[in-house]
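JOB MANIFEST
job_type = single_chain_structure
chain_count = 1
residues = 145
[input]
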Amino acid sequence: ISDPVSVGASVIGILGVTLHAIHLLWDDVKGIKDAPEEIGRLKEDLQEVISLLEQLNKVTEQVKQNIISAEVRDALRVSLARCDVACRKFQEKLRHWKKRSGDGPMHWLDRAYTGTLGQKHLQLLCTRIETCKSTIIAATSTANL
């Protein structure tokens, strides 16, 4: 069984790391001009997660004080870590896919790859983000009770 203080501290630590990773990915995604529709939806999902993480950041004092149960803290820590890894991996792939586009409109080959061949990676990331959002909502609801 994990020490509650250590788990609380690890949640707070991974929260900052995950928020940073999502911000970096969001910056890359929002800079894509003429992006496929799927990327547009990803922008919205990332913005929602950023907002939720910022809300969670406001209740970190409750995490420190162990107001949130150990089970919720563990689930939150795991979910945030997975979201962080998924965002970083997708950001690497996205940068590779946009190699022809630079800062301008998306090159048709990059657009085709991102929209068609990148579907699997995009769906995986969106699933991770949805799981992360659900866990954050549960944790903040628990903290606010």
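[summary]
The mean pLDDT is 76.
The radius of gyration is 17 Å.
exit_status = 0
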